[in-house]
Specification:
The chain is of the alpha/beta class. About 50% of the residues lie in helices and about 15% in strands. Strand 8 and strand 9 form a beta hairpin.
C-alpha cells in the first residue's frame, strides 16, 4: 500500500512539473519573467523557513556590511533571481542554439577556460549555485565539448528521468555524486571534462575550510581527483548580466595541480583556494547566490579545529 501511495505521489508531482514546464514554454519570455516575479513575491512571503536561513547566512557572511533592511531587500532579490532562473532554464533549449549563442553568452573574459578546453589535458570545472550555472554546462555541449556534470539524483524517479533528459539535450551527461566515482576517474584518465558544484555542505566528515570567514564543510573529493590525476581545476561563475538569458562566463581561478606537488596538506590548500575563488565571485553579486541553503549547517569538531 505504501508503495502504491509513493507511486501515485511521485507520478502526480511529475505530471504537475511537466504541465508547469509546458505552460511556461508557451508564454513569451517577457510573460514568463512577469510570472516569475509574481512567484518570487509569493515565495518570499510564504517560505518563512528559507527566508530566515538566508537572512542568517547574509549576517554571517557580511556582518555589518548590510543593515537589517538591506539584508531583507537582498533576500527579496535572491528569491527574484532564482524564480527568474527557473524560467530561464525552461526556455533555454528553445532560445539558445548553435547559431545565436553569442547573443546569450559572453565569453570575452574566458580565454583561460577556452585554452583549457582546447588543451590535451583533462579538466575539472568547479562552480557554485550562482548566476545561471545551467547555461554554462548547456553551452559546453552545444559547442561540441562533451562534459560530465556531477549531481545528486532526485528521489522521484519520474522527475529525475525527465530532468536528466532535459539537461542532457546538448550532449552533456550527468553522474551521481554517490556511486559513479569510478566513472569520474575513468573520465579524467581519458582526458575528459568533469564539472561539479562545490558549494554544498558536505556533512560532519567534510573538509572544513573558510568561506566568508567561517569554517564550511566542503567535499574534498574535488581536490583529491585534481591532485591524483594531475587535472587542472578551473573555477567558473556564469553571471547574469541583468537581462533574461544574458550571462557572462567569469574565470575566478585556474589551479594547476603540479604547483602543489610535495606539499604536505595539498588537499586542504586546493580546497581552500577554490572556495576562496567562489567567495570572491559571490561577493561581487550576492543577490545571484543561493543563500537559501544552509551552507554552514555543520561545524567542525574540536579535533578538526586543532588540525586546522
Amino acid at each position: 500500500m505504501s508503495k502504491s501511495r509513493s507511486f501515485v505521489a511521485d507520478y502526480t508531482v511529475y505530471l504537475i512539473v511537466r504541465l508547469f514546464v509546458s505552460v511556461i514554454q508557451v508564454l513569451t519570455i517577457d510573460g514568463s519573467i512577469a510570472f516569475a516575479d509574481v512567484l518570487a513575491w509569493l515565495a518570499y512571503r510564504v517560505d518563512r523557513r528559507h527566508r530566515a536561513v538566508a537572512l542568517e547566512n547574509l549576517r554571517i557572511a557580511f556582518g555589518d556590511r548590510f543593515s537589517s533592511a538591506e539584508r531583507d531587500d537582498l533576500v527579496r532579490s535572491v528569491y527574484l533571481h532564482f524564480c527568474r532562473l527557473l524560467i530561464e532554464i525552461i526556455h533555454l533549449p528553445r532560445r539558445m542554439h548553435i547559431t545565436n549563442w553569442r547573443d546569450h553568452l559572453d565569453l570575452s573574459t574566458a580565454r583561460p577556460f577556452i585554452a583549457c578546453l582546447l588543451s590535451d589535458r583533462p579538466l575539472l570545472i568547479v562552480t557554485g549555485h550562482f548566476g545561471n550555472w545551467e547555461m554554462g554546462s548547456y553551452a559546453l555541449g552545444l559547442l561540441g565539448f562533451p562534459c560530465h556534470a556531477v549531481a545528486r539524483p532526485l528521489d522521484n524517479p519520474y522527475l529525475d528521468d525527465f530532468l536528466r533528459q532535459f539537461r542532457e539535450r546538448t550532449g552533456q551527461k550527468l553522474l551521481a555524486k554517490k556511486g559513479d566515482f569510478e566513472q569520474m576517474q575513468q573520465i579524467l584518465s581519458g582526458r575528459g571534462v568533469l564539472g561539479t558544484l562545490a558549494d554544498q555542505d558536505a556533512g560532519k566528515r567534510g573538509l572544513f575550510v573558510d568561506f566568508f570567514g567561517r569554517p564550511a564543510s566542503t567535499h574534498k573529493a574535488i581536490a583529491l581527483l585534481a591532485l591524483q590525476y594531475r587535472v587542472p581545476l578551473i573555477v567558473l561563475l556564469t553571471r547574469n548580466l541583468g537581462k533574461p538569458l544574458h550571462c557572462r562566463v567569469e574565470v575566478e581561478d585556474l589551479i594547476l595541480p603540479e604547483h602543489y606537488e610535495g606539499q604536505p596538506d595539498a588537499v586542504r590548500a586546493v580546497t581552500q583556494r577554490f572556495t576562496a575563488a567562489l567567495e570572491r565571485g559571490v561577493s561581487r553579486a550576492p543577490a545571484q547566490y543561493f543563500w537559501l541553503h544552509r551552507r554552514w549547517k555543520h561545524e567542525p569538531t574540536r579535533s578538526s579545529r586543532r588540525a586546522a
